[in-house]
Design a protein that fits this description.
By secondary structure, this protein is of the alpha/beta class. The chain contains 6 helices and 7 strands, in the order βαβαβαβαβαββα. The chain has a 7-stranded mixed beta sheet with strand order 3-2-1-4-5-6-7, covered by helices on one side. Bound molecules: glycinamide ribonucleotide (GAR).
Length: about 190
């Protein structure tokens, strides 16, 4: 197959802090990177991640509306800017199956646990309470079922006796930043 030198266009959906977004932006600036963060969409007006987008001159939109309105507006932006992949990065809403179908492009998520363990919220607390030896993160395709789509890549870290949900979250977050860019560079074929 012929190779194109054009980087794939990514839309990142966020809800808050945006450290995964920040890390993806950094990677997308590398010459050898296969993707470019082209669009950032937040469902929260106050999401910190919007500041990184603005600072990096990336088109950004905050759509703090009902799920239906959020999805409709996002779909039109995705079509308008000819986005190739959607990446959820700390995006705390569950997209409808109709959105997933209509988007017609891969949607990828990062989750702070070793799926299929600990789907949903409070993953670090639950991993520690249930005396897991390891935790980590998972990058996966988004399907109609929460945190259940095909896994692209996982990274794991040991849970130490002295760990609490906060220390574990920060260890896992560091892994997330590596895992997300590696997973994207792995799945994107020029
Ligand atoms: C990350 O740990 C991400 O895995 C998690 O929220 C955090 C967002 O951090 N996502 C979920 O729990 C989704 N179910 P960030 O805003 O700094 O990237």
């Amino acid at each position: 197959m012929e190779k194109s030198t054009t980087k794939k266009k990514i839309a990142v959906f966020i809800s808050g802090r945006g450290s995964n977004l920040k890390s993806l932006i950094k990677n997308s600036k590398l010459k050898q990177g296969k993707f470019k963060i082209h669009l950032v969409i937040s469902n929260k007006l106050t999401a910190q991640g919007l500041k990184y987008a603005k600072f990096n001159k990336i088109k950004s939109f905050a759509i703090e509306k009902s799920l239906k309105e959020f999805e409709n507006k996002s779909l039109s932006l995705i079509k308008k800017y000819k986005i190739n992949y959607i990446c959820l990065a700390g995006f705390m809403r569950i997209l409808s199956s109709s959105f997933i179908k209509k988007a017609k492009i891969p949607i990828i998520n990062i989750h702070p646990s070793l799926l299929p363990k600990f789907k949903g919220l409070n993953t670090h607390e639950r991993a520690i309470k249930s005396k897991q030896k390891f935790s980590g993160c998972t990058v996966h395709y988004v399907s109609e079922k929460l945190d259940s789509g095909k896994i692209i890549l996982q990274k794991k870290v040991k849970i130490l006796k002295k760990d609490n949900p906060k220390t574990l979250a920060s260890k896992v977050l560091k892994l997330e930043h590596k895992a997300y860019r590696e997973a994207l560079n792995f799945i994107i074929n020029f």
